[in-house]
Amino acid sequence: MTATASVAGLRVVEVGVAMAGPFCAMTLGDFGAEVVKIERVGAGDDSRSWPPHFCGAMGYYFASANRNKRSVALDLKSPEGIEVARRLIARADVLVDNYRIGALARAGFDWDSLHALNPRLIYCSISGFGATGPRAAEPANDLFMQAYSGGMSITGEEGGGPVKMGISVADIGAGMLGTIGVMMAIEARHRTGRGQRVDTSLLEGQMAMLAHFITRYFASGDVPGPSGSGALTSPTYRAFRAADDWIVISAFNQRMWRGLCAALEKPEWVADARFADAAQRVANRLLLIEMIGAVVATRPVAAWEVLLHQNDVPCCPINRIDKVVVEPQVRAREMVAEIALPGLGAMRMAGLPIKLSETPAGIGLPPPRLGQHTEEVMLGLDYTGADIAALAAQGAIGLDTGWRRGDQPAGGT
Q1: Residue 198 to residue 127: CA distance in whole angstroms
Q2: Sorted alphabetically, which SUPFAM superfamilies does this protein's record hold (predicted)?
Q3: pLDDT-derived band of residue 57, with 50, 70 and 90 as boundaries?
Q4: Which residues share a beta bridge with 398?
Q5: Pick from 10, 96, 255, 303: most CB atoms within 10 A?
Q6: Are 304 and 364 in contact, with CB atoms under 8 Å apart?
Q7: What is the pLDDT of residues 210-220, one digit of tens each?
Q8: Tell me: the pLDDT tens digits for 260-273?
């Protein structure tokens, strides 16, 4: 990472597990922040143990959200471990956590205490429900919040059972909101000189993503339901079965409707009163889906891609992960990154999704081993080698023990 990165020199302490908090801190690290991740002695972030593994104790899930960080293992139930964390936070610009509301307060790190310790500190709390309200102190996770927020009620096939989104949409959405909140607070601190609390949650992230469904409900009184691969507001915006596989067609305006009719070799549909405009197409939605499906079924996906692209109608096959990671467009955008793990080889993961022309993101550090940087960080906090050895002996801190015997890097395209 270079000194010209967007937030180079920003000091971030993360007390996070799984995805939401770690994703927020990783994004800051991608743009140059110096991120120190506090983990539990002996166990670390829960996601380290989730298989499959890249390298022994490093689960794929952990690896995907923890590059560009240093790992410090602390026992935050011991006074000595808490003191190490206190020294870290006193020198930090940002603290990120995604534990249940009140968890850090039990270690003495409530907002009032944090603000007194470091008035410039920006504390980003990413929880399940947010810091206020009747359920604030309850635990929540991605699956729970997809259901609680209403997101699961609009996912899946019409008339079918509940379906979870395949991606961790609530976790990653909350992590993104956390990053945005931190950057807003940093900008405010340039003017005021003071930090503040950033309070967001999985619930609020999901509600934001459901914005148009919520607005539609208040506008119409109709409760939205699942619409399969498409949208109830557009029968020409969905997946159709071609002769050999599925294809997504997304003709979402009048110009594209005309292009779709041309590609399907059904020009007479343009003049059909039943499909004259978007409202009529929705009114005759099931009929139109059946008619389009009958035509699409007559040719393979590749043939439809040519015809639809010729008529400027967005379409594509439904790629699997093994296909998308080798797509020329994905490679051109450098959205597959390779990171060296010293002594073990290389690992591949999703790349950097935000491109800045003058202060670009980068990958400077691979995901760390548990406690890999405990000694290094503590020496920077004015602990001596003897102090560190004594605290490690009593279990207040955990030191780097290296890769376990037999650890092997995983392969991949």
Answers
A1: 11
A2: CoA-transferase family III (CaiB/BaiF)
A3: low
A4: 73
A5: 96
A6: no
A7: 999 999 999 99
A8: 999 999 999 999 99
What angle in degrees, to the nearest 10, is found between the helix axes of 169-192 and 202-209?
100
Q: What is the DSSP letter of 342?
A: T
DSSP 8-state code for residue 274: G
Tokens, residue 14: 């993360």
Q: Count the helices and strands in the chain (H runs, E runs).
A: 17, 14
**pTM higher than 0.85 for the full model?**
yes
For residue 199, list its beta bridge partners: 125
CB 334 within 8 A of CB 325: no
DSSP class of residue 48 equals: G
The residue ranges of DSSP E strands in 98-251, in sequence order, are: 122-127, 197-201, 237-241, 246-250
Largest Cα separation within the chain, whole Å, is 85
Kind and range of the H or E run holding 193 = none
CA distance 110 to 105: 4
Q: How is residue 360 written in tokens?
A: 């670009």
Q: How far apart are the C-alpha atoms of 12 and 107, rounded to whole Å?
A: 19
The H or E element containing residue 410 is none
Q: For residues 278 and 236, what is the distance between their CA atoms, to the nearest angstrom?
A: 10
CA distance 124 to 64: 21
d(CA 86, CA 95): 11
For residues 61 and 47, give the distance between their C-alpha atoms in angstroms, rounded to a whole number. Answer: 6
Task: Give the C-alpha separation, 72 to 44, whole Å.
Answer: 9
Can you tell me whether residue 28 is helix, strand or coil?
A: helix
Strands 397-398 and 69-74: antiparallel
pLDDT tens track for 285-309:
999 999 999 999 999 999 999 999 9
* Measured distance CA(368)–CA(402) in Å, rounded: 10
In this prediction, what percent of the chain has a pLDDT beyond 90?
Answer: 82
pLDDT tens, 127-163?
A: 999 999 999 999 999 999 999 999 999 998 888 888 8
Place of tokens 């899930």: 61
- Active-site positions read 171
Residue 68 DSSP class: S
Cα 37 to Cα 3, 81, 85: the distances in Å are 21, 14, 10
What are the tens digits of pLDDT across the range 99-132? 999 999 999 999 999 999 999 999 999 999 999 9
